[in-house]
Design a protein that fits this description.
The complex is a heterodimer of chains A (about 70) and B (about 675).
Chain A (H helix, E strand, L loop, with lengths): L1 E2 L8 E7 L3 H10 L6 E6 L6 E5 L2 E5 L1 H4 L2 E5 L1
Antiparallel strand pairs in A: 1-6, 2-3, 2-6, 3-4, 4-5
Chain B lengths: L6 E7 L5 H9 L3 E5 L6 E9 L2 E7 L15 H8 L4 E7 L3 H14 L3 E6 L6 H15 L3 E3 L5 H14 L14 H17 L4 H13 L2 H7 L5 H19 L3 H19 L8 H13 L5 H45 L3 H19 L2 H17 L1 H15 L7 H7 L3 H6 L7 H10 L9 H11 L4 H26 L9 E4 L7 H35 L12 H9 L11 H10 L5 H9 L8 H12 L2 H13 L4 H11 L3 H28 L3
Parallel strand pairs in B: 1-4, 1-5, 5-6, 6-7
Antiparallel strand pairs in B: 2-3, 3-4
The chains are: A alpha+beta (about 70), B alpha/beta (about 675).
Chain lengths: ~70, ~675
């Protein structure tokens, strides 16, 4: 299990654990990013936010936030 | 006589699904923007007549979900539950059904009278979309229609469907199964509430569900009840119980259940052909504009281009308006003289009123064109990328990329800029963004730059003005750092932003948006500015008998009293002091005040003679120092009023007066004295 910033562009990830505040967690789940969801990394430069594809939309996530989201590569 | 609307329709949906486009197509220019009572959320309403029925349309704020965690988010459910709209139209992005349907499910849970409008259907997919609409309609037991929000024809279809079905639009008969465990806990809550309160089944379902989810609005509903404490404890026990079973918190459980249901729905739908040109194009553009090396330079080039184009395009229009007011003044002077009106009255009308208002209206083209570009950036989808690009930098001053958008809006006007901080999630983020917003040079300060650069730097007008904007941004960043260090130590809220596919904005939407902004400016010019033009005129003409705008006039006296403060900054002349003093009320009047004080509002000589007069009192260096001061000093009354409203305390606007004055004086001092040392004059 790695955090989101450790994955590369093109990786498909099954989310396993989101360790952040309740409010942020439910914001994410409204967007479709919840424990058990499958997402794809679209862009991950070594700095700045990372971009993931959740369903059909692209969501930019702050780097700090992405570090709190863990998952496994499928 | 004004008749009441027969029907009320609420528009809802996720952000970036074309909801505003639908609203604009439906209502056209008949819109009214206000606030939701008691809240700081913008409320947009419009009216239309369709088949002789008057229909009120309410544009509900874009959201991803109905569960409310803050007061602001209760707007949609409040509206549905309290105002009993005849129908709620949920606009859905047909290309992103899964996420959009999440909200649909919540709307069904709420028992909203729902119609779904499938929007953003690609031309090649219309057939599939109509089949899917039919299937969805059957599965969810609600009307579903395919629309193109930009086309009148399809909004007519939508309204037609509403009128035909209005009696049949009731709750969907859909029953969601949450699984035995969740259902069990829900039943316990239901049992408790129904033992205390007499509610309909629908209400009971909704309240229990929302209590379990920790919904703000429902919490507020029961907080005053005598059984609140007992119920709250029971709900907590339920939540903990579920947490033990699932090893997940309640929001994740509910998300899993709802998305699971959506997954089931999707299996029934016809799969779209996934090869698509628009996505490829978005990908290509993103590869360039979000490139780690190219992103920021490109953005700066775009901003520079916007400012250059704004000046080039607006100049002919400004000249035209200027000439019109000039001839109007001349015509009035001569005809009033013929009528035997006193010189005094003529001066009031021509110098005070026409001069003042004309001096403001002249800048309508510049504001209109600047907003044209800002709206283009926003509606095309680029603004979200800007937030992404700037996140890293913004992080350094303790803000995230999203806070950049209110700051950019500040370039148009700090008032909407400060209001746009509402999109930020934490109070600390909002406060910091509000405090540095006034350093984003607003459109009303632009006239001062245009006048002064025209007089002293005509060859490099665009560059000099660009340098002022950059200076404002730099100061904002520095102060942001200082505030963060000493005032607001907490970390910022999480950065999550959707990057919608690029699309060409609709002309209609752009025009409506620009008109809103320009009208805001004009209506202020019409009232505030007119009033102040007259006050300036009075101060410049009294005591009776003094030469207009001379040192002996009231304005001259006040100006002389305070001008020594500005002497070290290079503009110790009393006219500048007076202009700055009036600039506190509204930045728009600074130029007008100069006009009045130098007595150059009369016909044919408008700007050139003002420039000549300025040349006597300013050098290029002191002119630049003056512009720097105007850029940084106390924002206008309207901004302070908005800050008061948004922060809900007088502390912050007063603090704003304090630090902006100090910063402006210091920076102008450094510019002027430093400039002299290097040898500028």
């Amino acid at each position: 299990m790695k955090n989101l910033t450790e994955f590369n562009k093109g990786d498909t990830i099954k989310i396993r654990c989101i360790s952040c505040g309740q409010n942020f967690r439910r914001r994410l789940s409204e967007l479709g990013l919840f424990d058990g969801a499958e997402i794809e990394v679209i862009k991950n430069d070594k700095w700045g936010p990372i971009i993931v594809k959740i369903f059909e939309s692209k969501i930019a996530l702050g780097r700090g936030e992405a570090q709190k989201i863990y998952g496994n590569k499928i | 006589m004004e008749t009441k609307s027969e029907y009320t329709i609420g528009l809802t949906g996720n952000p970036n699904v074309g909801k505003s486009t639908l609203f604009n197509t439906l209502t056209g220019a008949r819109q009214h923007v206000g606030n939701w009572p008691g809240k700081t959320v913008e409320k947009k309403e419009g009216e239309l007549i369709f088949k002789e029925k008057k229909i009120r349309i309410v544009d509900l704020p874009g959201a991803y979900s109905l569960t409310a965690y803050t007061e602001e988010e209760t707007v949609t459910s409040d509206f549905i539950l309290n105002e009993h709209p005849d129908v709620i139209i949920q606009v859905i992005d047909a290309q992103n059904l899964a996420r959009n349907l999440y909200m649909t499910i919540q709307l069904i849970e709420l028992g909203a009278p729902l119609i779904i409008a499938l929007n953003m259907v690609r031309k090649s997919q219309i057939k599939i979309a109509s089949i899917n609409a039919k299937i969805l309609s059957q599965l969810l037991d609600i009307p579903v229609i395919v629309i193109d929000a930009r086309e009148k024809k399809s909004t007519d279809n939508l309204l037609g469907m509403f009128l035909v079905k209005k009696r049949k639009i009731n709750d969907s008969m859909l029953k969601l199964a949450y699984g035995t465990e969740v259902d069990e806990e829900l039943n316990q809550i239901k049992k408790f509430i129904s033992s205390k309160e007499d509610l309909s089944r629908k209400e009971l379902n909704w309240i229990s569900l929302k209590l379990l989810e920790g919904d703000y609005r429902t919490e507020q509903m029961i907080i005053k009840k005598p059984y609140y404490f007992e119920l709250k404890q029971a709900v907590e026990t339920n939540k903990n119980h579920l947490k033990k079973i699932y090893n997940q918190d309640i929001n994740t459980i509910m998300a899993n259940i709802r998305y699971g249901f959506i997954k089931g729905l999707q299996k029934e739908l016809v799969v779209e052909d996934s090869s698509s040109k628009t996505i490829d194009l978005t990908e290509k553009i993103d590869n360039i504009v979000m490139n780690r090396f190219l992103g920021i330079p490109l953005f700066l080039i775009i901003i520079l281009f916007i400012f250059q184009a704004t000046f080039k395009l607006s100049k002919p229009m400004m000249d035209w308006i200027k000439n019109c007011f000039g001839s109007l003044g001349g015509y009035l002077t001569s005809s009033l003289m013929n009528l035997g009106v006193s010189k005094w009255t003529i001066s009031l009308i021509v110098d005070g009123i026409i001069g003042g208002v004309g001096g403001v209206l002249v800048f309508v083209p510049i504001i209109g064109i600047l907003f044209l570009f800002i709206v283009l950036l926003e509606d095309s989808g680029y603004m979200a990328r800007v937030a992404y690009i700037m996140d890293k930098l913004m992080h350094k001053i303790g803000l995230h990329g999203k806070a950049f958008i209110p700051l950019i809006l500040g370039f148009g006007c700090n008032v909407p800029g400060i209001m746009a901080t509402r999109t930020l999630e934490t109070k600390k983020d909002r406060l910091l963004t509000i405090l540095i917003n006034p350093f984003m040079s607003c459109g009303a300060r632009l006239p001062v730059y245009v006048l002064f650069t025209g007089a002293f730097f005509s060859a490099y007008q665009g560059w000099i003005i660009f340098s002022l904007y950059i200076l404002g941004i730099t100061i904002a960043i520095l102060l942001g750092l200082i505030f963060k260090k000493f005032l607001i130590k907490e970390l910022s809220s999480p950065f999550v932003i959707e990057l919608p596919p690029y699309h060409i904005p609709s002309l209609n939407g752009i025009l409506i948006h620009i008109w809103e902004r320009v009208w805001l400016f004009i209506s202020r010019a019409g009232t505030l500015i007119l009033a102040f033009s007259i006050i300036v005129w009075v101060l410049a003409s009294f005591p009776l008998g003094v030469e207009y705008g001379s040192r002996a006039s009231i304005a001259g006296l006040i100006g002389q009293k305070i001008s020594y403060v500005f002497k070290p900054l290079g503009f110790g002349n009393w006219q500048s002091s007076v202009a700055l003093m009036f600039g506190f009320f509204a930045k728009e009047v600074i130029v007008g005040t100069f006009g009045t004080l130098y007595g150059v509002a009369d016909a044919n000589t408008t700007n050139n003679s003002l420039i000549t007069s300025l040349g006597k009192d300013f050098t290029p260096l002191s002119a630049y120092s003056f512009m720097v001061f105007v850029l940084l000093y106390i924002p206008c009354m309207a901004v302070l009023a908005v800050v008061k409203r948004e922060t809900n305390s007088w502390k912050w606007p007063l603090f704003m007066i304090f630090y902006t004055s100090i910063v402006a004086w210091l920076v102008a001092f450094i510019v002027f004295q430093g400039g002299r040392l290097i040898g500028f004059i």
